[in-house]
Design a protein that fits this description.
Length: 233
Protein backbone atom coordinates (compact mmCIF):
# COMPACT_ATOMS: atom_id res chain seq x y z
CA UNK A 1 0.00 0.00 0.00
CA UNK A 2 1.34 3.38 -0.99
CA UNK A 3 1.50 6.50 1.13
CA UNK A 4 -1.11 8.22 -1.01
CA UNK A 5 -3.57 5.37 -0.43
CA UNK A 6 -3.01 5.56 3.31
CA UNK A 7 -3.65 9.32 3.18
CA UNK A 8 -6.89 8.76 1.28
CA UNK A 9 -8.10 6.22 3.85
CA UNK A 10 -7.35 8.60 6.73
CA UNK A 11 -9.02 11.50 4.91
CA UNK A 12 -12.21 9.50 4.31
CA UNK A 13 -12.23 8.36 7.95
CA UNK A 14 -11.96 11.95 9.11
CA UNK A 15 -14.87 13.01 6.94
CA UNK A 16 -17.10 10.13 8.02
CA UNK A 17 -19.84 11.20 10.45
CA UNK A 18 -19.42 10.06 14.06
CA UNK A 19 -22.85 10.27 15.58
CA UNK A 20 -23.04 10.41 19.37
CA UNK A 21 -26.05 9.14 21.24
CA UNK A 22 -28.07 12.23 22.33
CA UNK A 23 -28.90 10.48 25.59
CA UNK A 24 -25.20 10.18 26.35
CA UNK A 25 -24.69 13.88 25.69
CA UNK A 26 -27.59 14.71 28.00
CA UNK A 27 -26.10 12.62 30.81
CA UNK A 28 -22.69 14.28 30.40
CA UNK A 29 -24.29 17.74 30.44
CA UNK A 30 -26.32 16.93 33.54
CA UNK A 31 -23.29 15.54 35.40
CA UNK A 32 -21.19 18.63 34.62
CA UNK A 33 -23.98 21.05 35.40
CA UNK A 34 -24.65 19.45 38.77
CA UNK A 35 -21.08 20.09 39.90
CA UNK A 36 -21.02 23.75 38.86
CA UNK A 37 -21.73 26.31 41.55
CA UNK A 38 -21.57 30.12 41.47
CA UNK A 39 -18.19 31.57 42.43
CA UNK A 40 -18.04 34.73 44.50
CA UNK A 41 -15.68 37.19 42.82
CA UNK A 42 -12.66 38.43 44.78
CA UNK A 43 -12.64 42.03 45.96
CA UNK A 44 -10.52 44.51 44.03
CA UNK A 45 -6.76 44.17 44.51
CA UNK A 46 -6.53 47.51 46.31
CA UNK A 47 -9.14 46.40 48.82
CA UNK A 48 -7.24 43.20 49.53
CA UNK A 49 -4.02 45.18 49.91
CA UNK A 50 -5.73 47.56 52.33
CA UNK A 51 -7.07 44.64 54.36
CA UNK A 52 -3.58 43.11 54.72
CA UNK A 53 -2.11 46.47 55.76
CA UNK A 54 -4.85 47.16 58.31
CA UNK A 55 -4.58 43.71 59.86
CA UNK A 56 -0.80 43.73 60.25
CA UNK A 57 -0.58 47.42 61.17
CA UNK A 58 -3.23 46.97 63.84
CA UNK A 59 -1.39 44.01 65.37
CA UNK A 60 1.81 46.07 65.55
CA UNK A 61 0.20 49.20 67.04
CA UNK A 62 -1.97 47.35 69.57
CA UNK A 63 0.93 45.22 70.80
CA UNK A 64 3.28 48.20 71.06
CA UNK A 65 0.63 50.22 72.90
CA UNK A 66 0.21 47.38 75.38
CA UNK A 67 3.98 47.10 75.96
CA UNK A 68 4.59 50.86 75.91
CA UNK A 69 5.53 53.26 73.12
CA UNK A 70 9.00 53.94 74.53
CA UNK A 71 10.73 53.82 71.16
CA UNK A 72 8.35 56.26 69.52
CA UNK A 73 8.61 58.66 72.45
CA UNK A 74 12.42 58.75 72.33
CA UNK A 75 12.93 58.95 68.58
CA UNK A 76 13.55 62.31 66.97
CA UNK A 77 11.37 63.69 64.19
CA UNK A 78 13.86 62.70 61.48
CA UNK A 79 14.23 59.16 62.82
CA UNK A 80 10.45 58.75 63.07
CA UNK A 81 9.86 59.99 59.53
CA UNK A 82 12.61 57.86 58.00
CA UNK A 83 12.00 54.60 59.86
CA UNK A 84 8.22 54.52 59.70
CA UNK A 85 8.17 55.69 56.08
CA UNK A 86 10.36 52.74 55.09
CA UNK A 87 8.27 50.34 57.17
CA UNK A 88 5.03 51.70 55.69
CA UNK A 89 6.34 51.32 52.13
CA UNK A 90 7.50 47.77 52.80
CA UNK A 91 4.20 46.86 54.43
CA UNK A 92 2.17 48.18 51.49
CA UNK A 93 4.41 46.45 48.93
CA UNK A 94 4.26 43.13 50.75
CA UNK A 95 0.52 43.47 51.23
CA UNK A 96 0.14 44.04 47.48
CA UNK A 97 2.22 40.92 46.76
CA UNK A 98 0.08 38.97 49.23
CA UNK A 99 -3.02 40.10 47.36
CA UNK A 100 -1.43 39.01 44.07
CA UNK A 101 -0.89 35.51 45.50
CA UNK A 102 -4.67 35.14 45.63
CA UNK A 103 -5.02 35.76 41.89
CA UNK A 104 -3.81 33.04 39.47
CA UNK A 105 -1.65 34.38 36.68
CA UNK A 106 -0.77 37.62 38.46
CA UNK A 107 2.41 39.22 37.14
CA UNK A 108 3.66 39.74 40.71
CA UNK A 109 3.57 36.07 41.72
CA UNK A 110 7.33 35.56 41.17
CA UNK A 111 8.35 38.69 43.11
CA UNK A 112 8.03 37.37 46.71
CA UNK A 113 11.53 35.85 46.69
CA UNK A 114 13.13 39.24 46.02
CA UNK A 115 11.09 41.61 48.18
CA UNK A 116 12.01 40.27 51.67
CA UNK A 117 15.71 40.49 50.80
CA UNK A 118 15.32 44.04 49.50
CA UNK A 119 13.33 44.93 52.61
CA UNK A 120 16.08 43.67 54.90
CA UNK A 121 18.70 45.66 52.99
CA UNK A 122 16.54 48.81 53.15
CA UNK A 123 16.12 48.47 56.91
CA UNK A 124 19.83 47.89 57.45
CA UNK A 125 20.58 51.00 55.38
CA UNK A 126 18.18 53.30 57.22
CA UNK A 127 19.34 52.03 60.62
CA UNK A 128 22.98 52.46 59.61
CA UNK A 129 22.37 56.06 58.57
CA UNK A 130 20.28 57.11 61.58
CA UNK A 131 21.90 55.43 64.58
CA UNK A 132 25.47 56.03 65.71
CA UNK A 133 25.56 54.47 69.15
CA UNK A 134 28.07 51.61 68.80
CA UNK A 135 27.65 50.28 72.32
CA UNK A 136 27.00 46.59 72.92
CA UNK A 137 25.95 46.52 76.57
CA UNK A 138 23.80 43.45 77.31
CA UNK A 139 23.85 42.84 73.57
CA UNK A 140 22.66 39.23 73.57
CA UNK A 141 20.28 39.40 76.54
CA UNK A 142 18.42 42.49 75.30
CA UNK A 143 18.60 41.29 71.72
CA UNK A 144 16.91 37.99 72.42
CA UNK A 145 14.13 39.80 74.29
CA UNK A 146 13.48 42.04 71.27
CA UNK A 147 13.76 39.20 68.76
CA UNK A 148 11.31 37.10 70.73
CA UNK A 149 8.87 39.99 71.09
CA UNK A 150 9.03 40.75 67.37
CA UNK A 151 8.46 37.12 66.40
CA UNK A 152 5.58 36.73 68.86
CA UNK A 153 3.99 39.83 67.35
CA UNK A 154 4.45 38.36 63.87
CA UNK A 155 2.49 35.20 64.74
CA UNK A 156 -1.03 36.71 64.93
CA UNK A 157 -0.24 38.90 61.92
CA UNK A 158 0.79 35.81 59.95
CA UNK A 159 -2.32 33.88 60.99
CA UNK A 160 -4.59 36.76 59.96
CA UNK A 161 -2.78 37.12 56.62
CA UNK A 162 -3.02 33.40 55.91
CA UNK A 163 -6.73 33.29 56.68
CA UNK A 164 -7.27 36.07 54.16
CA UNK A 165 -4.98 34.40 51.61
CA UNK A 166 -7.09 31.24 51.75
CA UNK A 167 -10.11 33.17 50.49
CA UNK A 168 -8.38 33.46 47.12
CA UNK A 169 -6.78 30.87 44.83
CA UNK A 170 -3.26 30.31 46.13
CA UNK A 171 -1.34 27.89 43.92
CA UNK A 172 2.19 28.36 45.27
CA UNK A 173 2.37 27.36 48.93
CA UNK A 174 6.04 28.28 49.42
CA UNK A 175 5.86 31.73 47.82
CA UNK A 176 2.59 32.57 49.57
CA UNK A 177 4.00 31.44 52.91
CA UNK A 178 7.17 33.44 52.34
CA UNK A 179 5.41 36.72 51.59
CA UNK A 180 2.78 36.26 54.32
CA UNK A 181 5.54 35.52 56.84
CA UNK A 182 7.56 38.50 55.62
CA UNK A 183 4.56 40.80 55.93
CA UNK A 184 4.08 39.52 59.46
CA UNK A 185 7.77 40.17 60.08
CA UNK A 186 7.32 43.81 59.07
CA UNK A 187 4.50 44.00 61.62
CA UNK A 188 6.89 42.64 64.25
CA UNK A 189 9.61 45.17 63.36
CA UNK A 190 7.08 48.00 63.39
CA UNK A 191 6.08 46.99 66.89
CA UNK A 192 9.74 46.97 67.98
CA UNK A 193 10.40 50.43 66.56
CA UNK A 194 7.35 51.74 68.41
CA UNK A 195 8.28 50.01 71.66
CA UNK A 196 12.04 49.51 71.96
CA UNK A 197 14.10 52.45 73.25
CA UNK A 198 17.45 50.73 72.69
CA UNK A 199 18.97 52.66 69.79
CA UNK A 200 22.35 50.96 69.74
CA UNK A 201 23.27 50.45 66.09
CA UNK A 202 24.19 46.78 66.25
CA UNK A 203 21.12 46.01 68.35
CA UNK A 204 18.61 47.37 65.84
CA UNK A 205 20.54 46.16 62.79
CA UNK A 206 20.74 42.57 64.02
CA UNK A 207 17.94 41.82 66.44
CA UNK A 208 15.22 44.02 64.95
CA UNK A 209 15.97 43.34 61.29
CA UNK A 210 16.30 39.59 61.93
CA UNK A 211 12.55 39.38 62.55
CA UNK A 212 11.91 39.84 58.80
CA UNK A 213 14.00 36.98 57.32
CA UNK A 214 13.17 34.60 60.16
CA UNK A 215 9.42 35.20 59.79
CA UNK A 216 9.60 34.89 56.01
CA UNK A 217 11.58 31.64 56.13
CA UNK A 218 9.29 30.20 58.80
CA UNK A 219 6.22 31.07 56.72
CA UNK A 220 7.64 29.41 53.61
CA UNK A 221 8.73 26.26 55.45
CA UNK A 222 5.47 25.91 57.37
CA UNK A 223 3.30 26.43 54.28
CA UNK A 224 5.36 23.89 52.32
CA UNK A 225 5.22 21.33 55.12
CA UNK A 226 1.47 21.69 55.62
CA UNK A 227 0.33 22.15 52.02
CA UNK A 228 -1.08 18.62 51.91
CA UNK A 229 -3.20 19.25 54.99
CA UNK A 230 -4.34 22.83 54.38
CA UNK A 231 -6.81 23.83 51.71
CA UNK A 232 -5.13 26.65 49.81
CA UNK A 233 -7.97 27.53 47.48
Amino acid sequence: MKDREIDDILARAAKAPHDVDPALLDRVTESIGASLTPVRPLPAAWLLTTAFVLMCGSVAVVTASFLGLHGLENLGSLERAAIFSVLAILMVLMAAICASQMIPGSRWRTFPVVLPALGSVALLAVFGVLFHDYGTENFVAQGIVCLRAGLFTAIPAAVASWLLLRRGFVTGAASAGLIAGSLAGIAGITMLELHCANFELFHVMLWHTAVLPISGAAGALLATALRRFIRFS
